Amino acid sequence: MRERTMCLLFFLFLVVAFSGCGVHNEAALGTVEPNPSSAQAEASSSPSPASTPSLEPKPSPSQTPAPLSSSIGSVPQVKHAFSAAEEAVVKQYRSAIPQKWGERLPGIRTHIVTKEPLIALTFDACGGKEGSGYDKKLIDYLIKEKIPATLFVNARWIEANPDIFAQLAANPLFEIENHGTEHRPLSVNGKLAYGIKGTKSVEEVIHEIDDNADHIEKLTGRRPLFFRSGTAYYDDVSASIVHDLGFQAAGYNVLGDAGATYNTEQVYQALTKAKSGSIVLAHMNHPEKDTAEGVMKAIPVLQKAGFRFVQLATYDLD
């Protein structure tokens, strides 16, 4: 009992002693300035306003608006609801199995029907990872020399170059046509061309064609007459769908720059081999390449040989 009493008294003594030390130290040191490093550490350990959880209720996924795309290569328009005519196309081709695949299938127009010395220059603007550049040197040359041309423009290129597109569409030298919504080979089963995966259903074929056609018509007041798929590849089913949607599938018979890979001399050699009725396929979305130089070298030679240049819409195609 005595030992327990002594322990209790000793414990009370320690409590009083340590309390006195605390008061003594604080009084002796006066007001203590905060240590900058410790204050900084304390501040960094405290949650910042940005990291503080919001007390506001979060919207459900159905209430959350889709973020606006900031990507240059994104498609500007939402997929449209199908019309009765488009639904009829879906129904007609839903079970169709493609038998052919390529650039030169029945229904794909590859030359002008003429006996005159005429050539149609067509330039693709692909957009997205296939290139959203603008070959100003090429276009300025065509304008200066009054050379008409047909421009196949993809939806992603339009989004990346809205002002330039508006200027081109307003210039009567240039005929604006449809190069697709996402620059995909036209297929009903996802077939590849040059490593690019094609559309994989009838519905996707329709969106690839009509979404950009609607967009071009909205911007220009004129609906395109021609469609050229990304890579210019089609299966026979999708080629028929192009026709049934009211367009002509535009191919080519002169490979002008091989996807903007030719050098100046190769472009020149390709173009100067054109014949009456030729449709030349080249590109206007790679200003860093040699397409412009090759075209500028070839056109005077072709003109001297008696050739004239025309837009696709001015003649029948076969």
Short description:
The chain has 318 residues and is α/β, with parallel strands linked by helices. It contains ten helices and 13 strands. It has a domain at 110-314: Alpha-Beta Barrel (TIM Barrel).
Structure notes:
The chain is built from ten helices and 13 strands. The chain has a domain at 110-314: TIM Barrel (Alpha-Beta Barrel), CATH 3.20.20.370. The strands form four sheets. Strands 3, 4, 5, 11, 12 and 13 form a six-stranded parallel beta sheet that branches. With 318 residues, the protein is α/β, with parallel strands linked by helices. The termini are far apart. Residues 1-74 have low confidence and may be disordered. The longest helix has 28 residues, at 2-29. The radius of gyration is 34 Å and the shape is globular. It has helices spanning 2-29, 36-45, 84-93, 136-145, 155-160, 162-170, 202-220, 236-244, 264-271, 291-304; strands spanning 101-102, 108-109, 118-125, 149-153, 174-178, 192-193, 196-197, 226-227, 234-235, 248-250, 254-255, 278-283, 308-309. Helices cover 39% and strands 14% of the residues.
